[in-house]
Design brief:
By secondary structure, the chain is an alpha/beta fold. The chain has one domain: Alpha-Beta Barrel (TIM Barrel). The protein contains eleven helices and 14 strands. It has an eight-stranded parallel barrel, surrounded by seven helices. Strands 12-13 form a two-stranded antiparallel ribbon. β7 and β8 form a beta hairpin.
């Protein structure tokens, strides 16, 4: 299972929100410096989200995202406001290894399918849900997407995605532990690599995620944000936990 240290960017600064609430924000300085620290400690991937773009669709922090992609010796997975072919092309051609489409995955699934065909392995969908998967959230989690997690997984079943990134919003940024039951259901339903996001607080949580298995399938990755940036979980310890079931 691959570790994806998360860097959320708002107004050019690395931040962490609690459950996506922009009024519950902690700030952590320069995003590029943070990415370099993670890579120096052994990270092979960095998960970057442009929070401003996620809300508005405008690429407010794209220069920061591209600077991270160019400035670290690791692969970068990026989401937040990727809602057009031009957005995806700029990021992928600028050094981002994989783009994550969330709002567009709900509003324009044809765009996702077309990009996945053009950029094999370079496109993921971000399925951010509340209520145990009953409702997806879009536009920076401000609006209900009008569909369920299960329906979205079925919709993209035949699309050659690089990954499906599944976030339990109620657990995100509050270190409430990962949604193991929900992720097991996703593993049973999805044919794509599944990356878990939301709630990781410890190496034990990562070991549980790495050991989760449904019909021979396991998670391909885990996104970890607050636990790493707050220092309650060392990146080296997190990497070892992700490899525990290898």
């Amino acid at each position: 299972m691959e570790l994806y240290p998360a860097i959320d960017v708002r107004g050019g600064v690395a931040v962490r929100l609690a459950q996506g609430d922009f009024d519950r924000e902690d700030r952590y300085g320069d995003p590029l410096d943070l990415a370099r620290r993670y890579v120096a400690a052994g990270a092979r991937w960095i998960h970057v989200v442009d929070l401003d773009a996620a809300r508005t669709g405008e690429p407010a922090n794209r220069d920061v995202v591209l600077a991270i992609a160019a400035g670290v010796d690791a692969q970068v997975q990026c989401g937040g406001g990727v809602r057009s072919a031009a957005d995806a092309e700029e990021l992928l051609q600028g050094g981002v290894a994989r783009v994550v489409l969330g709002t567009a995955a709900v509003s324009d699934p044809g765009l996702v399918a077309g990009l996945a065909e053009r950029f094999p392995g370079g496109v993921a969908v971000g399925l951010d849900h509340r209520g145990a998967g009953r409702e997806l959230a879009v536009e920076g989690w401000r609006r209900a997407g009008g569909t369920s997690l299960a329906a979205a997984l079925a919709r993209f079943g035949g699309v050659d995605l690089g990954a499906v990134v599944v976030t339990a919003i109620e657990r995100d940024g509050v270190m409430a532990g990962p949604d193991l039951r929900g992720l097991a259901a996703v593993l049973g339903a999805a044919g794509h690599p599944v990356i878990a996001s939301g709630g990781v607080r410890s190496a034990d949580d990562l070991r549980r995620l790495a050991s989760l298995e449904v019909r021979g399938r396991r998670l391909s990755g885990a996104v970890v944000g607050r636990a790493l940036v707050d220092g309650s979980l060392a990146l080296e310890e997190a990497l070892a936990a992700c490899a525990a079931s290898a």
